[in-house]
Amino acid sequence: MMKMVKRLALATVTAAMFVALATPASAQSELEIGVLGLISDYNSLTATNPTRSGDTGPALGFGGGFLIGQTINERWGGEFRYIYSRNDLELEAGSDKADLGHQSHAVHYDLLYYFSDSDAKVRPYVAGGIGVKYYQGVGAEDPFQPGMDLALLTKSTQAMFVGDFGVGVKIRVGSNGIFRVEFRDYITGVPENVITAAPGASIDGDLLHQFAPMFGYSFTF
Predict the structure, then answer these.
(1) Fold exhibited by the domain 2-220
(2) What distance in Å separates the CA atoms of residue 221 and residue 211, rounded to the nearest whole number?
């Protein structure tokens, strides 16, 4: 698995570099480097055994990252991104409540389609891309975790393919500054090494969504 993930990460970086190198120089061509901040939450998963059920998954959290982007033409752009998120794991079933520290790292490349030309002050856009996301349980595991008959929150790691989709708007500030606001949905499979179903139990759902309002500031060159 790790070899496959490393190959995908390399392919993502290579694709970003190819787009940057293949883009013809023009008056509208710009390089963009910026930072991002975000608040995010996940859809809840249901852990079930023959006698009861409970909700589990990463909770509301925060994060940040950086981007390197380029204008491809008047309406298309590309961005390479790294995103760090801190969303602790939770499990709740009746009076049983458990939690464990959790963080994730995502590396991905996106294509952006703009609804206005590159010289517009306000540029709404849609975006989508693929990459790798690394889930990581952190902190001390509880050997007598409440709800352990349903699922175990583990200090494990798991790398998975990620797809992301979103909408946003860029607002030009001065001649070289850009402020942006956007909403993203990061989609992976369920990291079963990190949130593990107990023997005789199951975790419903095949996909985990990270919903993330974002804001950022960048400079163009």
Answers:
(1) Porin (2.40.160)
(2) 31
